[in-house]
Design goal:
The protein is mainly beta. The chain contains one helix and ten strands, in the order αββββββββββ.
Length: 160
């Protein structure tokens, strides 16, 4: 019986993943994404001319998100955050809709971000990359000024 146990243990050890396995492939979120402005749920005259979100793995377990918006009047605004995607709150520079964000990557191709502005809860956003890696949806959960929960979905196409 000891010989059988030793043989099974040896087989299991040779089939196990090595302790220093190669890093997993890059997240399908990494890259730049442009919103399809024609599908935004606001009047055409109020829509931004463009919205681009870029995700970058900056090493050391950290990511950087850069959101660039060209408003209807052609004014450009930007928000940048560098963080560990473990759900810890970190500052956002540029203050589009938030000055703090907490982000987590629950599975490949999915990012969940909670936003706050001046200590007040903002929105929750879930970004999901399609199986082919060409499109991404952003589901935004927020509260109206009347305190009613609401949702909207934005659609992005990969730029790079």
């Amino acid at each position: 019986m000891k010989a059988l146990y030793a043989a099974l243990l040896a087989v299991a050890a040779t089939n196990a993943a090595p302790a220093f396995a190669a890093p997993t492939s890059a997240s399908p979120l990494i890259g730049s994404w442009a919103v399809d402005t024609s599908r935004l749920t606001m009047p055409p005259e109020a829509r931004p001319k463009s919205v681009t979100i870029s995700y970058e793995d900056v090493g050391g377990g950290k990511w950087r998100t850069n959101v660039e918006v060209v408003l209807p009047d052609s004014k450009k605004v930007q928000a940048i955050s560098t963080y560990v995607p473990d759900g810890t709150a970190t500052p956002v520079e540029g203050n589009l809709e938030a000055d703090m964000a907490a982000t987590r990557l629950p599975e490949p191709g999915v990012m969940v971000t909670a936003l706050a502005l001046h200590g007040n809860p903002g929105s929750m956003r879930t970004y999901t990359v399609s199986a082919d890696g060409k499109t991404m949806t952003e589901t935004v959960v927020y509260f109206t000024q009347e305190g009613v929960p609401a949702m909207r979905t934005n659609y992005f196409n990969r730029v790079r």
